[in-house]
Amino acid sequence: HMLAIMKDSQVGSFGVVAIVAVLGLKLLLLAAVPTEMKLGTLLSFPVLGRWAACYAMVTQPYARSSGGLGAPFVEGANRRDLMWASIITIAIVVFALRSIAVPVIITTLLFTMLYVKVVKGMIGGMTGDTLGALIELAEVVVLFVVTII
Question: Is the dihedral of CA 129, 20, 8, 69 positive or negative?
């Protein structure tokens, strides 16, 4: 049933509320980032969000039996891609965030692993919608960790 709902291209009221909430939360968290960390944070949070999606694509199957918009990404990703994405991501984040890079990376990894486990338990794998949601939520996690450290 959840897969059928995600297949519908119309955005419902809950979708609009979620989009506004996530954007508002990102703006609030960005405003709370210390000035000296803003540039590094602006560079790091989208990189870690996309890395989280790469992790999910490589480690999880595609949830739908018939193809969807996310199928080529999930089915085309491999462990070598994840290795290179991880190396590049770690290099960028360590350069950008310096002393707080390790806790930010570890928290993002743990969140991503938890998210993937929950989604796989609910629908059996990833879809384009769940990957997009993961990117947005991982970005919020990064911003939150930067603001509390």
Answer: negative
Residues facing residue 62 across a β-bridge: 126
Using a cut of 0.90, tell me whether the model's pTM lies above it: yes
Residue type, 75: E
What are 101-113's pLDDT values in tens digits? 999 999 999 999 9
Return the closest-CA partner of residue 56 out of 131, 148, 136.
131
SS3 24: helix
The Cα 128–Cα 38 span in angstroms is 30
Sign of the dihedral through C-alpha 74, 76, 79, 80: negative
At 56, list the tokens: 């999910």
Return the closest-CA partner of residue 52 out of 109, 92, 90, 119: 109
Give Cα 143 to chain centroid, integer Å.
Answer: 12
Give φ, ψ of 141 to 5 degrees: -60, -45
Whether residue 97 contacts residue 86, with contact meaning beta carbons closer than 8 Å, is answered with no
